[in-house]
Amino acid sequence: MTLRALPIGLDEANVFVARHHRHHAPVVGHKFSIGCANDSEIVGVVIVGRPVSRHRDDGLTLEVTRLCTDGTRNACSFLYGAAARAGFALGYRQIGTYILKSEPGTTLLASGWRLIGERGGKSWSRSSRPRVDMHPTEPKLLFEVTA
Question: What residue ranges in the chain does DSSP mark as E strands?
């Protein structure tokens, strides 16, 4: 089995996310997306965009907003590495991502990312602007890698 990266549009990446991601829906926008293929079959996608947190959105930072695979061995690490290399080649200085606190982060550590710390995870709903939470509300872990 040999994994290879391929360009993929946001629409096609979102179709893969809609089919395979266990707790997130497709995204609205992105800077770029990368597919991961095993022979001719797409086995994973990474969608990279601007940071969700305005405090991290400095123009030189990217964020993996979705990473999704069909469970193919090493596809997650492959995609995290490909996303970082592509972002750095475009001139970005760092790339980050959030995972659920209940997830181990093994693929991120294997790809050379480092744990920055625990972040939020609460509901976005407030009495002044009620919302239905469509995402997990448990705390998140922030990982990043710098150029």
Answer: 3-7, 32-38, 41-49, 61-69, 94-100, 114-119, 140-146
Please list, in sequence order, all residues whose beta carbon lies within 8 angstroms of the beta carbon of residue 5, skipping any fewer than 6 positions away.
Answer: 34, 35, 36, 37, 78, 82
- Spacing of C-alpha 110 from chain mean position: 15
Range of the domain at 135: 3-146
Can you name the residues that pair with 94 across neighbouring β-strands? 61, 146
How many whole angstroms separate alpha carbon 64 and alpha carbon 70? 17
Cα–Cα distance between 49 and 92 in angstroms, integer?
Answer: 11
pLDDT tens-digit readout, 47-95 = 999 998 899 999 999 999 999 999 999 999 999 999 999 999 999 999 9
Q: Quick one: pLDDT at residue 36?
A: 98
The enclosing domain of 135 has a CATH number of: 3.40.630.30
Domain total of the chain: 1
Question: What is d(CA 93, CA 106) in angstroms, rounded to the nearest whole number?
Answer: 23
8 Å CB contact between 144 and 80: no
